[in-house]
Amino acid sequence: MGQLTTREQELAAGMLVALAVIGIAMAAAGRSDPLGIHGAIVFLYSAALLIFIISRSFGPEPDPSRISRYYDDPIKVGVAFTLFWAIFGMFFGVWAAAQLAWPSLNFDTAWASFGRIRPAHTTGVIFGFGGNALISTSFHVVQRTSRARLADQISPWFVLFGYNLFCILAVTGYFIGVTQSKEYAEAEWYADIWLVVVWVTYFLLYIRTLARRREPHIYVANWYYMAFIVVVAILHIINNLTIPVSLGHAKSYTIWAGVQDSMVQWWYGHNAVAFFLTAGFLAMLYYYLPKRAERPIFSYRLSILSFWGITFFYMWAGSHHLHYTALPHWVQNLGMTFSVMLLVPSWASAGNALLTLNGAWHKVRDDATLRFIMMAAFFYGLSTFEGSFLAVRPVNSLSHYTDWTVGHVHAGALGWVAFITYGSLYTLVPAIWKRERMYSAALVEVHFWLAFAGTLIYVFAMWNSGIIQGLMWRTYTDDGTLAYSFVDSLLAMYPYYIARAFGGLLFLIGAVVATYNIWMTVREVPVTSGERKDDLPLAGPFPEGAATGPAE
Amino acid sequence: MDLTHETLVEASKTWGLFYLIAFSFCVLVYTFWPANRKRFDRAKKGIFDEDDEPWT
Predict the structure, then answer these.
(1) Among all residues of chain A, which has the CA nearest to that of B8?
(2) What angle do the packed helices A220-239 and A300-314 form, to 10 degrees?
(3) How far apart are the first and last CA of chain A?
(4) CB within 8 A of A366, min separation 6: which ones?
(5) Where are the domains of chain A?
């Protein structure tokens, strides 16, 4: 935060004081309710940041020439958050997986029961790891492709720290029993309102930066980031329309009733996959893949067509989560049809990525970072095909409620989302820290094989276990009764659960290796160009278009 | 006219279809419009410029 001016520091301090007051008010209103504990967390979080700001306020004023450079400081902090949440989320994933094989690993505590650490895992990896990676890379890509610095210096920090406060409130809430009981939207009403504030700021920052662009055309990666930001805002608001029991309680009730609630939840849930876990990561693919391969994207027009295809088809696919339920049949058909149609734009993107690499396979062989990106495109193609297939109703009758779904999700989350993220990070980190290279190419290679082996073990274990489960649940005897009890199917799962936990453990070790490698890159690898001259005198005219305005 | 479930079903089964077809048509026209070729080519190659500073 060394580039903040005195006025910006005052503004940041004012916002933190306001947030601390909100925290105290929440603590006072909530008392022993979980809301009170969250009030204390909000207070401590803002107080810690406030102390940091004050301790820095005696430093010299920032170099005026900073305005003629990109603003990368928030990206660096975002990378650190990304790496932290990766290890946190994946650790809880391995723990939850191990609990399924060895249930006593909850140590008879409430906070470590499966129902609580499982959302800690999903929130940690999706929102913590994925969300911070999306925010960090979006700040990087929008500046480079627009040839413009971020629109101001306060709102990037507000977005980053505000977003992580949301993640902290969500995860700590699960351990003390707070949940809305909506999958991937478990955080309660006050955290949801806070996320809306953060997200609107993010949207305004992004659109203002695009408005400052020096390129006439907005590069396609930005379209995907914009779709991610806009649609996640819409989904989040509509799915989280709830009425709290009182302003002093964490508990709230949704305004949606019955099957409408299910429909809204899975419209949200599937589009969270589409726009959080796909659109934003496709943005990474369309920027970092050409950069790393040093080859332009195979077809720019195809990337535009698949953008609109994905944007408009995904919106209708959510109802495939509710086959054979009280949801009207035609809505199920609609979701199934659009899910199958989605294969076209999805494979257009995956094909576009792989064809970009055509002629550069020697680079894929030699460069583990590019191999991460290539494998991501491959797994993207694989899991979108599987998704369309599983959305077909008769297939779904076999797969639904089984581990096949879990295998499918992890083919996407590990193979696609995490692979493209690490490929992007290994490209991004040397670029923004101005390092010649990563600390150790060998460790990138080690990470690749750990992640690849972990993903394969995980996914194959869950495919086997899911199909066995599905078949055992639908096997009848000659008398027309079920041949297997539920416990029979559970016992059959045991070896697969162990294999799954082992695959996840390999992936987690890979994440630790990546964090060490990035840490050492920042610490040890020499800087490419000269050091920044941060000790220049204060006075100096701001260039035209310099952003010193307050955050919105 | 009452806004019932049937009204919504009918609207989504007819106008929803037409709107998506019209929309796809617009996207296709934009993508293949000859005058856009130059800016797409420029965008495709523009990300490789090495100067790591904003343009003023």
Answers:
(1) A331
(2) 10
(3) 18
(4) none
(5) 1-56, 74-244+258-401+443-449
From B2's Cα to the closest Cα of chain A, the distance in A is 20
Using alpha carbons only, give the angle A230, A320, A131 rounded to the nearest 5 degrees: 35
A52-60's contacts with Cβ under 8 Å and 24+ in sequence apart are A52/A1, A53/A1, A53/A9, A53/A12, A53/A13, A53/A16, A54/A13, A56/A1, A56/A2, A56/A4, A56/A9, A57/A6, A57/A9, A57/A13, A59/A2, A60/A534, A60/A535, A60/A538
* DSSP assigned state of A462: H
CA distance A248 to chain B (A): 38
Would the CB atoms of B47 and A145 count as touching at under 8 Å?
yes
- Cα diameter, chain B: 62
DSSP string spanning A344-356? Answer: HHHHHHHHHHHHH
> Which among A214, A219, A294 is the nearest to B55, CB-wise?
A214
Q: Are residues B41 and A214, on separate chains, in Cβ contact within 8 Å?
A: no
**Residue (of A139, A132, A3) closest to A60 by Cα position:** A3
Chain B interface, best mutation among A301, A319, A428, A542, by max B CB count within 10 A: A301
Q: Please indicate whether, in this complex, the C-beta atoms of A148 and B41 are within 8 angstroms of each other.
A: no
CB contacts of A286 in chain B (<8 Å) are none
Homologous superfamily (CATH) of A74-244+258-401+443-449 is Cytochrome c oxidase-like, subunit I domain (1.20.210.10)
> Rounded to the nearest 10 degrees, what angle do helices A34-56 and A189-211 cross at?
40
**pLDDT of chain A, 552 residues: tens digit per residue:** 678 999 999 999 999 999 999 999 999 999 999 999 999 999 999 999 999 999 988 888 888 888 889 999 999 999 999 999 999 999 999 999 999 999 999 999 999 999 999 999 999 999 999 999 999 999 999 999 999 999 999 999 999 999 999 999 999 999 999 999 999 999 999 999 999 999 999 999 999 999 999 888 999 999 999 999 999 999 999 999 999 999 999 999 999 999 999 999 999 999 999 999 999 999 999 999 999 999 999 999 999 999 999 998 999 999 999 999 999 998 999 999 999 999 999 999 999 999 999 989 999 999 999 999 999 999 999 999 999 999 999 999 999 999 999 999 999 999 999 999 999 999 999 999 999 899 999 999 999 999 999 999 999 999 999 999 999 999 999 999 999 999 999 999 999 999 999 999 999 999 999 999 999 999 998 888 644 433 323 333 334 444 443 433
- Token pair of B19, please? 């709107």
Contacts of B27 in chain A (CB under 8 A): 304-305, 308
Rounded to 5 degrees, φ, ψ at A527 are -75, 145
- Tell if the CB–CB gap between A217 and B39 is shorter than 8 Å: yes
**A527, β-bridge pairs:** A435
- In sequence order, what are the residues at sequence separation of 6 or more whose Cβ sits closer than 8 angstroms to the Cβ of residue A281? A130, A134, A376, A416, A417, A420, A421
Q: Which one-letter amino acid corresponds to residue A232? A: V
Contact residues on chain A for B22, CB-CB shorter than 8 A: none
